[in-house]
Amino acid sequence: MLFSLTFPDWLTNEKSLAPATWGLVGATLLLVLATIILFLDSFFKGREQRRRWEREDASRAKEQQARWEREDRIREEDAKPKVSVEIGKRENAPEIVFRCFNLGNTIFFIDQMIITATDPKRSIRTSDLVGPPVLLPGTFISTTYDCEGLLTDGFQEANAVFVLRGPHGLEHTQPVWFYVTPDPTQGYDWTMGRLADRLPGAIVLQPRSIPKGQ
Fold first, then answer.
1. Helix or strand or coil: residue 74?
2. Are strands 83-90 and 208-210 parallel, antiparallel or unpaired?
3. Which residue, 140, 159, 163, is CA-closest to 214?
4. I need a surface site. Which of 77, 88, 151, 185 has the fewest CB within 10 A?
5. H/E segment holding residue 182
6. For residue range 26-81, what is the model confidence (pLDDT) as tens digits?
7. Which pLDDT belongs to residue 202?
8. Model pTM score
9. Which residue would you say has higher pLDDT here, 18 or 143?
10. Separation in Å, CA 127 to CA 113, 162, 176, 192
11. DSSP secondary structure string for all residues of 12-57
C-alpha cells in the first residue's frame, strides 16, 4: 500500500503505458541509429585511412624505385670512360703526338685510334700505341702519327678518334680536328682545329709543346 502511494500515478495508469512503451521504442531506435551512424563513420574513416596508407606506401615505393634508378644511372655513368684527348708537337718534328688521358675512375682498354680525312673521305685505322693497352685512372697513353699519307693538293682536314673498350662495351672519344698543309722544308705542317678556324679574326689553338723523349 505504501509503495502504491509513493509510486507516480501516471506510471501505473494504463493510459500512460502505451506512450511510455512507444517512448522506449523510440529511444531504442535512436540508440540503434546512433550506433549505426558511429559504425558507418568508423568504417569509412578506417577505409580512408587504409587508402591513405596505401597511397603513402605507393609513394614511398615510387621514391625508392626512383632512387634505385638514379643510383643505377650514376653507377653507369661512373663506369663509362672519362677521357681527354690532346694533340701536341715536338720541336723540329712534323708528326702529331696524340695523348689520351683517363680522367675517370674506370680502367679501360684502348683498342685503336682512327684518323678520318674529309677530302676524299676515308678512314685510316692505326693501333701503333705507345704504352700498355690498359689505361689506369690518372694515366695517359700516347702515339705519334705521320700525316704524310693525308697530303693532297692544298689543305687536308682530318680528325682523330680513340676507340675505348670499357665495362659497357665500346666507346668513342670526341673527334679531335686538325688540318695538314704542304711544307717545303719538312714535307708538311699541321694546325689544330678545322679549316673554318682560318677565318680572319678567329683564334686558332696552338698544340702543346712536348719535350723530346716524352
1. helix
2. parallel
3. 140
4. 185
5. strand 176-183
6. 778 888 888 888 887 787 888 888 888 888 888 888 888 888 888 888 877 777 77
7. 67
8. 0.62
9. 143
10. 6, 10, 17, 22
11. H-HHHHHHHHHHHHHHHHHHHHHHHHHHHHHHHHHHHHHHHHHHHH
Can you tell me which residue has the cell 659497357? 168
N residues, the chain: 214
| The residue to which cell 677530302 is assigned | 119
Measured distance CA(159)–CA(174) in Å, rounded: 9
For residue 205, which of 190, 195, 192 has the smallest C-alpha distance?
A: 192
Q: Which of 157, 160, 175 is nearest to 118 (CA)?
A: 157
Residue with cell 606506401: 57
**DSSP single-letter state for residue 120:** T
All residues at 6 or more sequence positions from 29 whose CB lies less than 8 Å from its CB, including other chains: none
d(CA 190, CA 177): 10
Whether cis (ω within 30° of 0) applies to the bond prior to 120 is yes
Write the CB contacts of 129 (distance below 8 Å, at least 6 apart in sequence). Answer: 110, 112, 113, 141, 142, 143
pLDDT at 2: 47
| Structural contact between residues 151 and 114, judged by C-beta atoms closer than 8 angstroms | no
Rounded CA gap, 61 and 13, in Å? 71
Q: What angle do CA 102, 166, 100 make, to 5 degrees?
A: 25
Cell triple for residue 38? 558511429
Provide the pLDDT for residue 28. Answer: 82
Percent of the chain at pLDDT above 90?
A: 8
